[in-house]
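Narrative of activities, Objective 1.

The group set out to show that a structural description can be obtained from nothing but a protein's sequence at a throughput compatible with the screening campaign. Below is one input-output pair from the validation batch, recorded exactly as produced.
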Amino acid sequence: MFRKSFAAIACFTLMSLIATAQDAKNLVQAASKEMGIENLNSVMFYGSGANFNLGQSNRANGPWPRTNLNDYTRAIDFLQSTSRATAVTWSAPVTGGAAAQGAFTQNITAANNTWSQQLEIWVTPWGFLKGAAANGATVRDDSIGFKKYKVVTWQTSQKSPSGKSYKVEGFINSDNLVDRVNTWIENPLLGDMLVQTLYSDYRDNDGFKFPSSIVQERGGWPTFEAQILWANPNPKNIQQLITPPPPQPAATAGTLTTVEVQTIIAQAVSTAAQLNRPVTVAVTDREGNVLGVFKMTGAAVATQFRGGGPGPSQVPSPLTGFVPVGLDGTVVPAKLAAISKAGTASLFSTRGNAFSTRTAGFIIQEHFPPGVDFRAGGPLYGVQFSSLPCSDIKIPGLPLGLSGDPGSVPIYKNGAAVGGVGIEGDGVYTVDRDPSDFDQPFEEVIAVAAGRGFEPPSLIRGDNILVDGIRLAYLNVNNAPSPATIPFGSLPGAVDPLFPIRGAQTSVFTAAMVGGIAGEVDTRFFPFVGSPTVTASSLTSADVNTIIAHAAQQANITRAAIRQPLGSNARVSIAVVDTNGVVMGLFRQTDAPGFGFDVSVQKARTAVFFSRVNAGTLLTGAGFGAYVSRAASDGIQLNGAIALSDRAIGFLHRPFFPDGINNTAPGPFSPPIDQWSVFNVGLQLDLIKTGLQGILSGGAAPCTSIPSLPNGIQIFAGSIPLYRNGELIGAIGISGDGIDQDDLIAAAGSVGYTPPVSIRSDQFFVRGVRLPFVKFPRSPNL
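Output recorded for this entry:
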């Protein structure tokens, strides 16, 4: 009897589902006929409206900031799952000020297959009905207030990080018109966030019906609204409408002209001549391209690395200028130091912060601030070994990587960072080991004179930015001499023939928008792709889009640590790599610091490499087995058993363990403090030393001999290894703001791809000390 009853119930349920599906099919057909879309393949509509910046309200329980859209046009090709929208924007900054004109563009292609992108096509009234017809919809009765609806529901082909399909439900009114469409997407802060789009005031174009009012809400507030003037079904030029114009590089990397480069050099040389200090002067544009090098008569030809640490001094080879251990004592051409100094000021500076090489040297030493015992290492400890000339990411790199040697200033025009100038002349390439003595080296005096008339706004200078309550260093020289400027053609010395005077070079970046966030991409790494090593768990292009979009959205609401004015949001570079270190996506928010472009990839590659099952084997095979053995003696096997973030790897790579605690042994990847300097940090330098020396000798090779680490590793926080079903599939790296902010943004991007808790580095101890995994700032969101 029970079996018969159960069978009857099952049969009744099945028949009910079939009936519901049939009812939905009939309803969808009726609505499609009423709206005139039975033969619809594409549509174009236009009008005006507004976007609202999700998560960026300056007040609690208030609407998101508004950006008006004029000349709004959208075209959709349902057959290709492709859409393109354009508009002219008008908006005022969140922090206040006058509204400014800009441009809005949104391109969605079949390659952008994430639901967060594709929903813009399929929650339109026409797209919803087409999706319902193709995806086995069901129907139920419902009402809102006193208005009754037929609610049609269908499931997407796209899967959420949990593996489930996304749900789409549309409310069809008694006139068989779509009143509203709901769907849900994951959001780093709001969890499963309702996206509700409301349609009203339908108009008729020869039987084709379209809403003249559209309002989309996310997080309970409007994020888009439009007043549609007209809509055309199946436009004949649909392919033209949905095809973006060929990407055009930004005009230049900054706006320095040839004449301005000559002026900067002339101001430097005139001051140096007055001081009787012959120097080499280099100028770079915003992206570190060399715009000119000038060597004064009598200037030193070479300079020597001296990290100023307690490590022993070494005598360089008379043939190569190289030393056997680290880089301390290495002799290189002075012009390379001048270029790296100028490039560092360029790559570190933005509209929100102006940093010099003195700033850089202040944040890369064994304590922060330098010279204060029992303080953790500098927040950007290790950044000096990035943007290297052997990098596959930052091309061209800086000849010596990023510099911490005082003697540079960033160059600004009208508040915008446009380049940098670097001075080398004392024969020593170093860092300031004692910031308290307020020394004023002549190289810095000349750099300040060179930048006269090109100063940054005072608010954004490094010495107006505090990190952990500590004011950053910027310049010890504030009033440089101002002698009469010698005409460029009469300067004592000559332009280096390898680096002739020129204006700012063509930028490698093009404008792009990811997850609704404006930024820039290098077309080498865009559109985003899936891992070329395809497995059941490997990252797809849709995964990469989701990860980068979520990270960018978090960055857009994260309170910046190193930008002025207070209340600005973080601006970062976001990189995703697969298990072999292949870059699958790289996105840079508008005005993110240039140095983060290379560093974000270094961080991602570092996290995924050290989390691999064969990391120890690969290091040993490359000649670094001593580090592997030291790590193993501390219980770190480098065999994939631990998911290691860059924060954890950096913690193991300090001359004191735990970080900053004097009179302790070093971490397994660092030399002891009596052998340490900023030019002898351990594994990070040893990995790239041969490659760097090869470049300096005129060769060409990747930075390391390990194929998955072609631009080296990075050892400060801002990356997370990515997993699916417990399997390592890649990593995300973030760089450009405070390291706690970088961790937070990386964590937002990793939602749905996090490692099992049991293997995270913070579940393991070394010498009785718990390793870190990530660390978030207090009150992180605006």
